[in-house]
Amino acid sequence: MLKSDVPFLYQERRMKLLGLAPEACFIFFGAGEVVRSNDTHFPFRQDSDFHYLTEFDEPDAALILVNGKSHLFVLERDESREVWDGERYGIERAQSVFHVDEVHLVRDFAAKLDELLIDAKEVYYSLGNHVDRDRMILKSIHSATRFQGKGRFGHLPFHDPFPLLSELRTVKDGYELSFIRKACSASAKAHLQLLKRVRAGMSEFDAFNEFQYSVFKNGCTELGYGPIFASGLNATTLHYVRNNEMLKHGDLFLIDAAGEVNSYTSDITQTFPISSQFSPEQKSIYSAVLDTNRAITRMVKPGISYRDIHSRSVEMLTEHLLSLGVLSGDLKTQIHTGAFRKYYPHGVGHYLGLDVHDAGIYHERGQDFLLKPGMLLTNEPGLYFRERGTPYYGIGVRIEDDLLVTESGAEVLTHELPREIEDIENLRRIVNT
């Protein structure tokens, strides 16, 4: 896609959304700046829905879609602020760059909303994120309802836009996939570097720094989420974030980290021995998780539901736990009672895109949402052993890949990272010689 075509892609997304509710008024707010104590500003990241519909990257913006038109609200040019925060687009430049129908100043939002709501038959807006904005929106809706002579029948119909936006965001277009592929490749290469370089005596934080250097060098612009660098027993804590302990011979190292490109993120987890090879117990658990990961990859295709693939992962991991003697009894009982959750407490994956847990519906009104070509999801089975007195105590293994649903199956976008035990041990022997 040519760079000149990009604004029209976002215009097309806005029109698709309007097409789902032609008589509605959609209202969206962008993210604000994050300011903490002592007037310290933190890196700005645009709200994902706002980014999806505009790619506009300034704070405190707003968007109204109504009557087939897009109205973008931006901060006014202010030389005194631009000295500190950088140049702003302003009205004229924002309209030419982002190809919206009309651009207004943020300060005029309330008055313009009153005007634009006059002919709307329903409103889509997410309540609950900002009290003052909610009050302003509800006041405008009340005014529009009275203007239309419907006051005694209640407000205009009011909806959350999440279901409609999710319908659009779950299926990625080629432009989105170009960023996702770059993020997946850069992240996989960064993980591979750690596999080749990490050794006992380093700290989890040392490995984190190595990862950041590599993932940014390979083209990512930000980390996709708070990373997990968990060695030994730390790997049995699902959201371990301290990342500050020393790496020891004999332990496993679980790393859940990835970068993003243009706000589109990857999500990768690898687990490998800090020593040259897996212990027999570690190898047994790693093999069980890898076996499940591979089976899920083969299973993913259009027409399959998330429930289908998660249920299969539960079945396979429970079978492995039974064969290892961790659980006892019959398979159906162990699944029915949820005995497996002690060792496998999370789902097999989630949607991926502008957010690491991306927008998307898994089931609606009792019906499972089926996978379609162009959808992106993670594949991350895992087993974790926190109880003392077992041969597997302190072992935590998760193997996570990013899968693109194709017309006939799934493409592994994180394929550059080796997963087989023999390949991992060969690399680890080189590091530890």
Provide a quick synopsis of the model.
The protein has 433 residues and is of the alpha+beta class. It has helices spanning 6-20, 48-54, 79-85, 90-98, 109-116, 131-147, 162-169, 174-197, 204-217, 280-299, 306-323, 331-336, 421-431, and strands spanning 24-29, 34-36, 40-42, 62-66, 69-74, 102-105, 122-124, 158-159, 222-223, 228-231, 252-256, 259-261, 264-265, 269-273, 363-364, 367-368, 376-379, 382-384, 396-398, 401-405, 410-412.
By CATH, the superfamily of the largest domain comes out as Creatinase/methionine aminopeptidase superfamily
Oligomer: single chain
Instruction: Enumerate the strands of the largest sheet in spatial order, edge to edge or round the barrel.
Output: 6-5-4-1-7-8
Gross morphology is globular
CATH topology of the largest domain: Creatine Amidinohydrolase
Tally the beta strands.
Answer: 21
- Mean of residue pLDDT? 93
Count of helical stretches? 13
What fraction strand?
Answer: 15-25%
The N- and C-terminal alpha carbons lie at a distance of 47 Å
CATH architect. name of the largest domain = Alpha-Beta Complex
Q: Supply the number of structural domains.
A: 2
Q: Percent range for helical residues? A: 25-40%
The main sheet comes to: 6 strands, mixed
Which segments are poorly predicted (pLDDT under 50) over 5 or more consecutive residues? Answer: none
Summing up helix and strand content along with how strands pair, one would put the structural category as alpha+beta
Rounded to an integer, what's the Rg over CA atoms?
Answer: 25 Å
